[in-house]
Specification:
The structure holds 2 protein chains of 2 kinds. By secondary structure, chain A is α+β, with helices and mostly antiparallel strands. Chain A contains 25 helices and 27 strands. Classes of the chains: A alpha+beta, B alpha/beta. The interface of A and B includes residues 246, 430 and 437 of A.
Chain lengths: ~750, ~240
């Protein structure tokens, strides 16, 4: 208490002068150091969304299947029928991963799963979206290996399968990787645990791990630029213990079977102070908490350290008075800490005591988003590059003489090549619900045992497109997610988003954010996939020698789709030699922002690829119709790498090949490797071909014959492109080879 | 027929095993809690996969000291059928019910994928039903699955037909390339001398549901059930 508090102290905690004044005003007095620390984490970008909430509110957040509104609970909740609800959310752990990839990624997985089971849902599937710098750099290799091991070690032990994901490499992520983890859980409708509080005199428990000095000011750390000094912030990193998390999961779900619970919230960013304030604010009450009762891992922890600690695997639980034994028996069974640390009070106040002394006295509502937390309107300006990129024309680029050479190079690009090295380190089959293991498809398919249904899940974002054109790029991310779900036989239902951007105080970075929100909102309205929640991660940029390099703006979309009849699950694999291959949609003379333009021609300045949201919408409908009528035997969308890579991916699972003819209307390199949107490759058996053509004619949607499935050879316009078996080897081994090469 | 599935803190394939036995094989199943010493009169015991007690030490090293394991060991010594999968196999080796040990995979990484195994001994309760010679596709998911036993032990095991499965390619060929984790002699599963305790690293319960498109593992459960019904194994009172 003796620490002197002034503007300098505030500044050191990331509080700007006007916020310092506002704190003064709220308390009616000068805050002490503990209180100032409380405001610093609760009003950090990470916890308060102060620089993003204004725009987030413009996203569509309503839909007939949504059971809670975005931001209302720890994760979104969607009614999937059969008396079941699905909780899902994606979250970033970028900053911790930049300095300590293993623990950073592990605790990211732990955090997102807690968000799901704190609602009473059992996590059944995980996905992740990862971005790294140039894979030739030693630092990137270290980051990739650490992040993948961290995700694997935590998730494998916790026991939830990884059913999908993406990995993307670009120089802009050299220092600041992005690690976005998504978790999906199931619960019986009506059995959701709310993150609320209430009932004067009800006991407040802290359960799970002990509290230590790890992760103090983590939320503040996540709300500042990554710099070359960021490694000094290692104490801001938390340490994960998946075994404790597993016990906490089982104990929490067992507690949910009783009727003693008022509310529960996990402790992630900003620890005890975040849970006590958010639960109290929701319940319109307060709490009296004795910090001496908190089980500690270390001695002599100061009040602010206990309040802000981000020690993992902890929950705050409010239960009905008189039911203490029920709670304590369950946690005893699972050998977990379970300590009453306080009680609910009527007033909107959080009173924290230590050694009998009142060490902090703050109103709960003033701390939280939607309450007293600040909301800012940030300035934004269009950067000069946006118009420059649009000047690009395909005519500036000469078509290479030998496209076979391009094809064999493309399949080895880290952004195209198999991510096997990554995903084989994750348990993808625990839970025995992964229907994609033996039937690869564009989205991960999760069986809902005992029903006719399955879930289709995907995470998508091509951040190169978003950099080129934030509005269009973000709309494409939504469209691609919906396309992946449609190609799997699912109906796109709702999204969660992870918005990874640069410093919001940089008007050009903020322009990217605003554009992306506009594009995402428009696309979500079109596809009727409301936003159920997610997270914002600003400050993803690197300051080196005074120069600021933002990462590609990356609004990752995590989409949930529902497959009403799991017998209509569609896969991407070609099934038989001789089947006809069709393109649904039209190829354009477009190579803008393609992997081909980027990696073969080394041209980074071009606009987003061709995209029309209405065409896209119709395409998905047509594809779902074809699947429903059993008219096709495979479907795979055209995305990174163009038609050639799509065909290769359809061919590899069962070792078939393809013989196709290109489109005379477009340049052959654009036809093979261009990434214009709105296209899906399907295959059709001969005896279904007439019906297929009738259906397509009726739909009035453009389609064309590409060719047919071969025994194993790849041919384009009668030119031999080699064999799929050889291509598979290159495709499968490229990333491991790069990892084993000497770096720089 | 009544199965018992042991649940340790950190078991995470317990629900999958219960689901296969209860919903797919339509058997009676009870959960055996690690702190308990009551085997509830089960006819066969299964130790599921997972990370018992977190497995922060050696996999399975702590689980062997749990109260339930004392009873499981007694049960096995009386001739009861005990089957350990993945972490369950590790626990059986740690507790001395099966010979050898499971070390870190050769590449030092966790590996999860479908692999092929070939049946070496067709005459145990677990493998009796696996009559055709084709390779079975069963998934693995482990960080410590490299089977090891010293030369003398290995010789005895081979002579006594204790090797149940070896990793192979899709044509059944056992080779270095088809060995996913560096196990000695490509060993994927074994049994004890008395042939009532079985352990394997691949997960048959992950290949037992039609809805997932692979049922090669289900044959093993069918084999156990049929053998037990015919009283070819289990405790004879």
């Amino acid at each position: 208490m003796s620490k002197e508090v002034n503007l300098e102290t505030a500044k050191a905690l990331g509080i700007i002068p006007e916020e310092f004044d506002k704190i003064h005003e709220i308390l009616g007095r000068k805050p002490n150091f503990t209180e100032l620390s409380i405001f610093s984490v609760m009003w950090s970008e990470h916890a308060s969304y102060k620089n993003s909430i204004k725009w987030l509110k413009t996203l569509p957040r309503e839909g007939k299947q949504l059971l809670v509104e975005a931001g209302e609970e720890n994760a979104g909740l969607v009614d999937i029928g059969e008396g079941l609800a699905c909780a899902f959310k994606i979250e970033s752990h970028n900053h911790p991963c930049a300095v300590e990839p293993y623990q950073g990624a592990a605790t990211g997985v732990g955090g997102i799963n807690r968000d799901i089971f704190t609602m009473g849902a059992r996590p059944i599937a995980q996905l992740n979206s990862l971005r790294f710098g140039d894979l030739k750099n030693d630092r990137t290799k270290w980051l990739l290996k650490g992040v993948v091991k961290g995700i694997g070690d935590y998730g494998n032990s916790f026991g939830v399968p990884v059913v999908g994901g993406e990995v993307f490499f670009d120089d802009s992520y050299n220092t600041n990787p992005l690690v976005n983890a998504m978790s999906v859980g199931l619960l019986k409708k009506g059995k959701m645990i709310s993150a609320t509080s209430g009932g004067v005199g009800n006991p407040v428990y802290i359960v799970g791990s002990s509290t230590g000095k790890d992760g103090i000011h983590g939320a503040t750390f996540a709300s500042a630029d990554i710099t070359e000094n960021s490694a000094d912030d290692i104490p801001s990193i938390q340490v994960g213990d998946p075994f404790q998390e597993k016990l906490l999961l089982e104990a929490s779900l067992e507690l949910n079977k009783t009727n003693v619970m008022i509310g529960m919230q996990d402790m992630g960013a900003a620890g005890i102070i975040c849970s006590t304030s958010e639960m109290s604010a929701r319940g319109k009450c307060g709490m009296r908490v004795d910090l001496d009762k908190v089980p500690l891992r270390q001695q002599n922890m100061e009040a602010f350290e206990i309040l802000l600690s981000e020690s993992q695997e902890r929950m705050l639980v409010v239960v009905k008075k008189g039911q203490e034994k029920v709670v304590e028996d369950i946690f005893e069974k699972w050998d977990l800490n379970c300590a009453i640390i306080g009680e609910v009070i009527a007033e909107d106040r959080l009173l924290f005591y230590q050694k009998g002394e009142l060490v902090a006295d703050v109103p709960a509502d003033a701390l939280v988003l939607g309450g007293g937390a600040p909301v800012y309107d940030r300035e934004y300006t269009e950067p000069a590059y946006y118009k420059e990129y649009k000047k690009f024309s395909i005519d500036q680029v000469k078509q290479p003489e030998d496209l076979r050479e391009v094809a064999w190079s493309m399949m080895k690009q880290p952004n195209i090549a198999s991510k096997k090295w990554v995903y084989e380190q994750y348990d993808s089959m625990v839970g025995t619900i992964n229907m994609s293991t033996n039937f690869p498809s564009d989205a991960g398919v999760v069986n809902i045992k005992g029903t006719n249904k399955a879930l289709a899940l995907t995470v998508d974002c091509n951040s190169r497109y978003v950099k080129a054109d934030p509005e269009k790029g973000a709309a494409i991310a939504v469209a691609e997610a919906a396309r992946n779900i449609s190609c799997t036989g699912g109906m796109p239902t709702a999204i969660t988003n992870c918005l990874n951007f640069g410093n919001p105080y940089n008007p050009e970075a903020y322009w990217q954010f605003v554009g992306a929100i506009k594009g995402m909102g428009a696309a979500c309205r079109k596809f009727e996939t409301p936003v159920t929640g997610g997270n914002v991660s600003f400050y993803n940029q690197t300051t080196i020698d005074g120069k600021t390099v933002p990462v590609f703006p990356t609004p990752t979309i995590g989409m949930l789709g529902i497959i009403e009849d799991k017998n209509h699950q569609m896969t991407m694999a070609f099934k038989n030699k001789g089947n006809m291959i069709y393109l649904i949609g039209e190829s354009k003379n477009d190579i803008a922002s393609s992997e081909y333009l980027n990696s073969w021609h080394k041209i980074k300045e071009s606009p987003a690829p061709w995209f029309d949201i209405d065409v896209e919408y119709k395409l998905h409908k047509v594809v779902r119709g074809l699947i429903k009528k059993n008219l096709i035997c495979s479907a795979h969308d055209v995305s990174e790498g163009g038609i050639f890579v799509t065909l290769l991916e359809c061919a590899m699972p069962r070792g078939y090949g393809f013989d196709i003819t290109s489109d005379a209307e477009v340049r052959e390199d654009a036809f093979l490797f261009g990434e214009s949107q709105g296209r899906v490759v399907v295959s059709v058996t001969q005896h279904r071909e007439n019906e297929f053509i009738d259906f397509m004619m009726d739909s009035k949607f453009p389609f064309s014959t590409l060719g047919h499935v071969t025994k194993g050879e790849m041919r384009v316009d009668d030119v031999a492109y080699g064999f799929v078996e050889d291509a598979r080897k290159e495709y499968d081994e490229a990333i491991e080879k790069l990892l084993n090469e000497g770096g720089k | 027929m009544k199965f018992g599935v042991v649940i340790f803190p950190g078991s995470n394939c317990d629900h999958d095993m219960l689901y296969v036995l209860r919903n797919i094989m339509e058997q009676k199943v009870v959960e055996l809690w690690h702190k308990s010493t009551d085997l509830q009169n089960v006819d066969a015991i299964i130790l599921p996969g997972g990370f018992s007690y977190g497995d922060y030490l050696r996999s399975g090293a702590i689980a062997r000291y749990s109260p339930i394991m004392e009873k499981v060991i007694e049960f096995a010594n009386r001739g009861g059928l005990v089957f350990g999968v993945c972490n369950g196999f590790q626990i059986l080796c740690e507790s001395g019910l099966l010979p050898g040990a499971l070390l870190h995979n050769e590449n030092q990484k966790f590996i999860c994928k479908n692999v092929y195994i070939t049946v070496v001994n067709h005459s145990t309760c677990l493998t009796r039903g696996l009559t055709d010679e084709r390779a079975l596709s069963i998934p693995i998911a482990h960080g410590e699955g490299r089977y090891y036993a010293d030369t003398a032990t290995l010789k005895e095991m081979n002579e006594n037909h204790q090797i149940l499965f070896r990793y192979c390619d899709e044509n059944g060929k056992v080779s270095k390339e088809s060995n996913p984790n560096g196990s000695i002699e490509n060993i994927a599963g074994i049994c004890n001398l008395r042939k009532n305790v079985y352990g394997m690293m691949p997960h048959p319960e992950r290949a037992a549901d039609d809805e997932l498109g692979n049922t090669d593992g289900r044959i093993m459960f069918e084999s156990i059930i049929k053998s037990m019904k015919q009283k070819l194994c289990g405790i004879v009172e």
